[in-house]
Amino acid sequence: MRKAVLFSLFILLTVMLIVSCSNDKKTNPDTESPTVTITYPPNNSSFVLGTVINIVAEADDNEEVDNVKFYIDGVELYEDTNDPYMYNWDTTDLSGSHTIYAKVTDSSENTSTSDIVTVTITDSVEAPNPPSNPNPQSGATNISTNTTLSWTCTDPNGDQLTYDVYFSTSTNPSLVNSGQSNTTFNPGTLNDETTYYWKIVAHDNHSNSTIGDVWWFMSNNQPPNPPNNLTPANNATSVSVNTNISWECCDPENDPLTYDVYFGTSTNPSLVNYGQSNTTFDPGPLNEANTYYWKIVVQDDYNLIIGDVWEFTTLITGSSTVTDIDGNIYQTIVIGNQEWMIENLKVTHYRNGDPIPNIIDNSNWTGSYTGAYCYFDNDYSNRDKYGALYNWYAVDDSRNIAPAGWHVPSDAEIMELEIYLGMSQNQANSTGWRGTNEGSKLAGNEGLWSDGALESDPEFNNSNFCLLPGGGRRSFGHFVWLGADAQLWSTSQFESNSSGAWIRYLYSNNTDVSRGGAYKYNGYSVRCVKD
Q: In angstroms, what CA-CA distances link 128 with 36, 51, 204, 327?
């Protein structure tokens, strides 16, 4: 009795579930149409009379595909209920143009049809079309010695094709590969500056063939890529005096490369090593606070590439750093009882964050009686090497252009530096050219200075102050003396309300230091000293 009751309950629940699903479909019917696409044959393809074409369709639905029907020339010929959906169409006695489409029906009787595909059934087998679109193009020159040949080819009947490749330096090229199915061929490494000839013969599977034209090109070994990814980075500072230099370089044809290394303190560095195969070089121990220049000349068996001239500046033992409001970091060094920046200032904001005007126009520079800066020749590329040029009004501004804890030196503070380097008190107090070789001691980076007595002095840059020939901007706005002169502002005026202020001046052909006055609206370099 109990089993009979349980069975009756099971039947009742099943009926209820079926009724519930049926009611749900009536309440929420599926109205989304399925999709169907003919994936084979391609549209506008051709086939030989009698070919059995395997028509393939892809169908999809949000619930379930019920069937796919295939139509030829609008007539339903076949219904398939299983994925993949296919129909093998026998084209015997069916020459001419025909249309194919598929119609899909889902489980809710929603339908849709595919796009129409047109095929042509020919009663004769045609040969392949001539090979075309050669790469390299026929008549091309300067082609890599590691090139790969390629072409395109089609068949009017849609037949699968194979290819014979003919290639050589003769105008009647030799067979080098036969029966390949792909449309590329690698002939291997070619000779430089050589004319090559090639052609393709295309075959279908009905013993038909088409001989292509003879194409030609001229090979030319490609040069190496320029050296890159150098270490130290270009314009790097604080570089160890025990550094090695390194670089990367590659060749587009993977030719073996050799390198000539040029290195020195001149902007036109000298050859120091020839024909090395590795990409590092040890220049030996370097001097502190010096700027070094280097370049790499790379060669393969046929070409030579000259790299750019790069530069870096070595670290000074015992040096420190200070950072301005713009985030520029400067090396500093203690000389006597003073700590100096050993790089020219390049800040563009006052210490409180206010911008310092960058004046480019000559007439505006001449008429400015407030703080301003510029770069030599208004060329930003001079910034990292030489710093900025400031008028005296920027130097004297109460908002301060020096980093916190630092200031632009007075005339007396520069005298203290000169006296520490060997100048007498009487010489320091005088004007014009004073002292002996204190200018050479203050100057640095001989490669930037014009040839002359200053950089020839044996004590050149022995203070590590490293003053550079950053030139200046005169009162009429024009730029002068880059590479020959260095001028430094002090905060000191000639006298109260004077139109001029004290500067220091180094010249490439003098070893001493000039002290004199300059108009406040001139543009000169700035060094800072610690409070």
A: 32, 17, 6, 70
Among positive and negative, which fits the CA dihedral 223, 229, 230, 235? Answer: positive
Query: Which residue from 313, 275, 296, 287 is spatially nearest to 458, judged by alpha carbons?
Result: 287
Locate 144 and state its tokens.
């890599």
CATH C-level class of 35-122: mainly beta
CB distance 55 to 84 below 8 Å: no
Instruction: Judge whether 35-122 and 132-219 match in fold.
Output: yes
Q: Where are the domains of the chain?
A: 35-122, 132-219, 228-314, 320-530
Residue 21 pLDDT exceeds 50: no
pLDDT digits (tens, 9 = 90+) for 378-427: 999 999 889 999 999 999 999 999 999 999 999 999 999 999 999 999 99
Q: Residue 430, Cα to own-chain centre: how many angstroms?
A: 55
User: pTM for the complete prediction?
Assistant: 0.57
pLDDT > 80? residue 20: no
Task: Please give the mean pLDDT across all residues of the chain.
Answer: 91
Contact of 523 with 473, CB cutoff 8 Å: yes
Q: Which two tokens stand for residue 413?
A: 């503070």
The CATH number of the structural domain formed by 228-314 is 2.60.40.10
Least confident of 42-46, 98-102, 116-120, 272-276: 42-46
Give the residues across from 471 on adjacent strands. none
Quick one: pLDDT at residue 19? 47
Cis previous bond, 130, omega within 30: no
- The four Cα atoms 227, 232, 235, 239 give a dihedral, to 10 degrees, of -160
Q: Looking at domain 132-219, what is its CATH homologous superfamily?
A: Immunoglobulins (2.60.40.10)
* DSSP helix/strand/coil, 420: helix
Q: Which residues contact 331 (CB under 8 A, 6 or more apart)?
A: 237, 238, 315, 316, 319, 320, 321, 341, 342, 343
Per-residue model confidence as pLDDT tens digits over 339-367? 999 999 999 999 999 999 999 999 899 87
Region of residue 275 (left: phi > 0; alpha: psi -120 to 50; beta: else): left
d(CA 245, CA 160): 57
Among left, alpha and beta (phi > 0; psi -120 to 50; other), residue 326 is alpha
> Of 208, 191, 497, nearest to 369 (Cα)?
497
